[in-house]
Design brief:
With 383 residues, the chain is α+β, with helices and mostly antiparallel strands. It is 44% helix and 22% strand. Strand 5 and strand 6 (101-104) form a beta hairpin. Bound molecules: magnesium ion.
Length: 383
């Protein structure tokens, strides 16, 4: 199993496509520098302490010579697609997890040596054909491979051989293990766990009783030599994700109907994003008190991935569908699902606004399902 992660992807694409920017500190930002955040900084700027997610004006204080470049989503998506094609040329199974990251199955290679030769060739082709460097981690399981790709950035090539996992984990910090949320991290460090190896050697019962099953599972997954390839690479999205509700009394009030629809819509968005998808279609279903039912579906010309947008769409659909008769039940579903693209989200929120859904899901990770949820749920609890 290999994990590949492009180095400072957006910034590197800009540098590769404009010779003037090569070797210079650049920051890729949204529109309008003043309220924008850094989506990616080139390594020249990172060396001065500039990080992704930092407000652009702060980045320019740290690194005044940095050249701001406005993000060009179409260009990055194009390069990403071409890179993924290249990955497909060396392995029949790849799992694309973001615009610049993917897992590559190496099971079909005759031996490790041949796999490594192909992966080194891949790195050379990325430089030759795109002018881009990537970091690659190779290990027996996906989590270790991902840690490996992050370990010697940029231009890294880290092989963690069978039997050498523990030796490797001595050098890795607990904070660099993917899947450990900020809340858990603080708790782990309060118990004195700093290095991944200490986490691995922690007592199972201690982990289970203090952190629960998920963290114990992560420990086992880190050391796993085998995992279900078919399960892992199966990336076909479900056809649709939906929620419906039969009401304890009929609703005639349009405002209340919208709130209930938005509540269901928010649940759908949460479930869809937990699974890593966004939607390009929405359906609304209404059942009247005489048990007749109507449904409408809309194909959207933008990717739907957050609650605010969902609310807008549901308002349109209700206006279009509802004949003002009392409602007995309703349902909302998302269809035309595809893997969530952080890029389209970043670009649709040009400026300093962060992805609220992302934050909500991170809070969920630490505090449990629906820890942060729209206040309209309060109305629904009365029904
Ligand atoms: Mg990257």
């Amino acid at each position: 199993m290999a994990h590949i992660d492009m180095d400072a992807f957006f910034a590197s694409v800009e540098q590769a496509s404009n010779p003037y920017l090569k070797g210079k500190a650049i920051i890729v930002t949204g529109k309008g520098l003043r309220h924008s955040v850094v989506t990616t900084a080139s390594y020249e700027a990172k060396r001065k302490g500039v990080r992704s997610g930092m407000p652009a004006h702060e980045a320019l204080k740290l690194c005044p010579e940095a050249i701001p470049v406005e993000a060009d989503g179409k260009k990055y998506e194009y390069v990403s697609r071409e890179i993924m094609k290249l990955l497909h040329s060396i392995s029949p199974e790849i799992l694309v997890t973001s615009i610049d990251e993917a897992y590559i199955d190496l099971a079909h290679f005759e031996n490790l040596k041949e796999a490594l030769r192909q992966l080194k060739g891949l790195k050379l082709r990325l430089i030759k054909e795109f002018g881009l460097t990537a970091s690659i981690g190779i290990a027996a399981n996906p989590i270790l491979a991902k840690i490996g790709s992050d370990f010697r950035k940029p231009d890294g090539f880290v092989v963690i051989c069978r039997g050498a996992e523990k030796e490797f984990l001595k050098q890795v910090d607990v904070k660099d293990i993917p899947g450990i949320g900020p809340h858990t991290l603080i708790k782990l460090s309060s118990y004195g766990y700093e290095k991944a190896i200490e986490f691995i050697e922690a007592d199972d019962f201690f982990l289970y009783s203090n952190f629960g099953n998920a963290l114990l599972g992560l420990k086992k997954a880190l050391l796993a030599c085998s995992f279900s390839r078919a399960e892992f690479f199966k990336n076909s999205p479900p056809k649709s994700i939906g929620h419906s509700m039969t009401l304890s009394r009929n609703i005639e009030d349009g405002e209340l109907l919208k709130r209930v629809a938005c509540f269901l819509g928010a649940k759908v968005i949460y479930r869809m994003r937990r699974k890593g998808f966004e939607a390009e279609g929405v359906s609304l279903f209404l059942k009247y008190s005489d048990f007749s039912a109507v449904r409408t579906s809309r194909k959207l010309n933008f990717p739907l991935s957050n609650v605010q947008r969902m609310n807008q769409v549901l308002y349109w659909l209700i206006e279009e569908l509802w004949n003002k008769e009392p409602i007995r039940a309703l349902g909302v579903s998302c269809n035309r699902l595809k893997p969530f693209n952080t890029l389209s989200e970043q670009l649709s929120f040009l400026g300093a606004r962060r992805d609220l859904m992302d934050t909500s899901l991170k809070i969920e990770e630490a505090f449990g399902k629906y820890s942060l949820f729209p206040a309209s749920i309060l109305v629904v609890s009365e029904l």
